[in-house]
Amino acid sequence: MRLIVLGPQGAGKGTQSKRVADKFGIVPIATGDIFRWAISSGTELGQKVKQYVESGRLVPNDLTIEVVRERLAADDAANGFLIDGFPRTIEQAAALDEMLEARGASLDAALVLEVPEEVSLRRITGRRVCINCGRNYHVDSPPEHDWTCDTCGGDVGRRFDDEGEEMVRERLRLYHEQTEPLKQHYAERGLLRAVDGEGTVNEVFDRIVALL
Questions:
Q1: Which is catalytic among the residues 19, 50, 123, 171?
Q2: How far is CA 76 from CA 26, 28, 66, 71, in A?
Q3: Active site residue 171
Q4: What pTM does this model have?
Q5: Is 135 a known active-site residue?
Q6: How many angstroms separate the CA atoms of 45 and 51, rounded?
Q7: Catalytic residue at 88?
Q8: Please, which residues have CB within 8 angstroms of residue 51's CB and are 6 or more apart in sequence?
């Protein structure tokens, strides 16, 4: 099964992607995680990515496509995947189609998690993450002990790209402007599966599985 997941920041794409991938035995591919790894590696590509991520702008198509192309070529993606964070533009969608066609493959579905903007803002501004293992928390659901990760004991704090409501609003504006048109793109191909992203994690997960 080959899937992508769309939705505004804070819709729960990362959380649901991991669960859905595990359910269907496919590899989860989060471009956000790949970008953060590139930044921490200190490579030339990572420095280019960092300039965009830290200013709240989308990483340019050519850099993003380069990262995704390399990831999809890995052996573990041969039997299926779920991509979170790509494509974000029509141009990227076309590039993904080309990547898959070159392998004699195509997408099975494009999931889109729908949540109101005020929900996105509340979720993102309250989001916290373990700097060691990446586990997500929220100010409403903190770790058990003084912002120390329950899983690995690492420090839990803001993600650098979550800083400030102004930056979050800019990221949401870019989503509406550049990524939302993909809903029509995939609907015209019969691939779009819209999911209500409000409710508990289990409720949203059950909706996704029912659609798939």
A1: 171
A2: 8, 10, 18, 9
A3: yes
A4: 0.78
A5: no
A6: 10
A7: yes
A8: none
| 7 conformational bin, left if phi > 0, alpha if psi -120 to 50, beta if neither | left
What's the token pair of residue 46? 């990572």
Task: Return phi, psi of residue 150, to 5°.
Answer: -70, -25
| 3-state SS, residue 36 | helix
The catalytic residue among 127, 135, 158, 183 is 127
Q: Which domains does the chain have, with CATH numbers?
A: 2-211 (3.40.50.300)
- As given in the structure block, the two tokens for residue 125 are 């501004």
Q: Which residues contact 202 (CB under 8 A, 6 or more apart)?
A: none
Q: What span, in angstroms and rounded, lies between the C-alpha atoms of 198 and 27? A: 25
Long-range contacts of 115-118 (CB under 8 A, 24+ apart): 115/7, 115/8, 115/10, 115/11, 115/12, 115/197, 115/198, 116/198, 117/8, 117/172
Q: Is 123 a catalytic residue?
A: no
> Which residue in 19, 36, 50, 88 is the catalytic one?
88
Q: What is the DSSP letter of 162?
A: G
Based on the residue annotation, tell me whether 2 is a catalytic residue of this protein: no
- Helix residue ranges, H only, 43-190: 44-53, 61-72, 90-101, 117-125, 165-174, 181-187
Highest mean pLDDT (candidates 29-33, 39-43, 68-72, 79-83): 79-83
For residue 193, give both structure tokens: 């599966």
pLDDT in tens, 60-70: 888 889 888 87
